[in-house]
Amino acid sequence: MIWRRRSEAEREPVPAERDPDKHPVLSNLAAIGKISTDVLVIGGGGAGCSAALHIAERGVRVTLLERGLVGSQASGVNYGGVRQQGRHPAELPIARRSRELWGRLREITGSDCEFVPSGHLKLARNAEEEAELVAYADVARQYDLPLRLIGRNAVHAEFPFLGPAVVAGSFAADDGHANPRLLAPALARAARKAGAAIVEHAEVVRLARDSDGFIAETANGLEVRAKSLVNTAGYWGGAIAEQFGEKVPIQVLAPNMIVTEPLPYVVKVNLGVVGGNVYLRQIARGNVIFGGGHGEADPVALRARPLPAITLEALPLAAEIVPMLRDALVIRSWTGMDGQMPDHIPVIGPSRTTPGLFHAFGFSGHGFQLGPAIGAILGELVLDGRSGTPIEAFDIGRFTLGKPP
Amino acid sequence: MPTDALCTANPHAAADLPPVIVGAGPAGVRAAEALLAAGLAPILIDEGAAAGGRIYQRQPPGFTRDAATLHGTEAGKATALHTAFDAIAARIDWRPGTLVWAVRPGELHLHRDGRAETLPFRDLILATGAMDRLIPLPGWTLPGVFSLGGAQIALKTQAVAIGRQVAFVGTGPLLWLLAHQYRKAGGGIAAVIDTTPSATKRRQILGLLTQPGMLARGLSYMLGLRRAGVRIVEGAMPEAILGEGRVQGLRWRDARGRVQESVCDAVAMGWHLRPEAQLAELAGVPFRFNPRQRNWEPDKDPTGRTAVPGVYLAGDGAGIEGADAAEIAGARAALSLLQDRGRAVDAGLLAALDRRAGAMLAFRHALDAAFPFPHALAAGIADDVMVCRCEAITAGELRAAVDPGGAMEINRAKAFSRLGMGRCQGRVCAPAAAEIIAARLGAPVEAVGRLRAQAPVKPLPAAARSTP
What we know:
Strand order of the largest sheet of chain B: 3-2-1-7-20
CATH superfamily of the largest domain in chain A: FAD/NAD(P)-binding domain
Oligomer: heterodimer
Largest sheet of chain A: 8 strands, mixed
CATH topology of the largest domain in chain A: FAD/NAD(P)-binding domain
Strand content of chain A: 25-35%
Structural class of chain A: alpha+beta
């Protein structure tokens, strides 16, 4: 439905600050006209910008269209966890590959995006949760993800800021956290430098395929023709897939995020809990960022809001694992939109209906860490026809071909 | 036009709920009075301990100065508003000391003394007032630097001067009123430095004459200060607040370009006000740019109605018009609310309010033109000056965030630089930051947008717990 150009009457008035016609730089865009390229990427999140970078680095012409600004939705406003621990086993090879890219981010993009390899400590608050930590450690071992299980006394000795509710922990020394607001813009800058065209404020309103390839038209009159199409449009990636006969059961997901005023810098690891109802990190300047539960989102109006009641529920959960938060002030809450699949893992891989179309969307709230590697994998899929990283589990066919997930 | 259903679809649109007013200043109190007079007892909420708003803020319990001493020429209006409130207080649901920290369609989220509460509403009058508009100067984070509004509150509620020799700098009526009040209270004045040349003010004389009483009062402040031998400089620009560890002086450049210094131990500064409109934004009200004031304001029509059904605005929170206009707007918004609930209202009263509001408009426009915001001063803040105090972000860091390949509007500049991400959420630094960004991009200031509001609109204790 978002691929139909809305009539004047249906369109909401654009606030002046978002109106391309009134913007000193954007107003030039309308004059660009037509672009002919090899690869068209739709969606400028971490995965899309990384794809544009990896494709441009191979000397292939690539254009990325982004409806707003790069990194405006899920990959820009998320929690900022750079975490392998706790992932679905099928995601671990991608996460391992991405972690290697995170370690070289400054070299790749010119910015480390405030990535801190702090380690990720996953906490158990009862015996049942502790058993889950133990079970996952076995899985992780098979994927070369080293985890260290820490018992009750040791976890409090090593991390004295933890509250008494914590009974055990599992530490992934290789994990960390980063500033999500910086990742997609940094990748986009690097992609531009490598020769990619990154076009912001370019909402695709019509998308089609003919014998020459794909044609996209944007609301501001740009027409892009390309041989291949990469769908990294997050929640809206579901609509692109549907356009090509691949309807998937995607839902909108808006994680409820909260940040406190600066506090003494003591929580120097990225914290999670079994079950994931709260997660928490502190940055060096002292602010504690935590999340838990979901806000509300309207993907048609492009609005997502944190929910006050959810914020109030997250406060005691966070204070339970880090009691110093009881004396803190919350200064802001926010959210953004991601796509959630029923099995909580993304769709990645070639289309099952349309040659030249490749998907990577529906990251279900945990795609930030994966973004850099997803771009590398998409580059390989588009240019080489295959990737060395196993992605079979993410085949869109699990929803469209009647196969069991 | 409403922005979207997420903001505007009120599930309680037909419920039998009392109207809610946020803000018990001149607009909020007059709105409450008008609703009560029609037999509809409202809920009136204010962050402060007492009604009156910032302009007519009451003294703490046990303080005994009389209104004339505290409010000077404005004493009559202050007393009238306090009396009006006292007459209705027992018959309305009065909730002082309460922060509205979030708004959703049909519900307000309140916080008071560690308790969080959800208050459903059918209709809502936001009378949230305004705060000082500041321009960061070198040295503005030194102890002893206050906003004009802060310096005035210290004086009128606690009888405290911010220093022994105070330099007043900025522009607008409050600059002169406050200097006058300090002089009357016996405070020492190092200088009054108005960034607007006197010729600019004189050009607006016809418009200002539409409210001769107000003009006369303003002129009397100026004249009184001059007669008392206070150093007055017009058309000068401040360069730096000087001092080591505390304020010791103010350096400024006069209209002929000569650099001068005034010795002082405190500085009060401000360039008019900016609307406190975060709640209106969270309620889904669209915003407009007011080019006369160079402020963003939530959009309302002259009756106080907005694009969001059931949400009304009154007072300086919807555009700076002053306390007298706020009293009229508060009553007017209440009448609109009553009409929209299908109640009969007195047509004569309606017409009288509209006539008085219209009569004030010409004066307001002249005032805006007589004391313009010196945007070039804000745009030209030196790179090493801290613009965002909460996050310690300098003008240079902000400029770096908008340089080629960087941000092209203020929210993205915030994302890149952290400006506006701290305790005040950009309420202090946003006006100057927008000017810096616009100048760097060569764009009009309205093109760089405004910082989006997020809940909580003011810091919320993490210990807050929902009321069962």
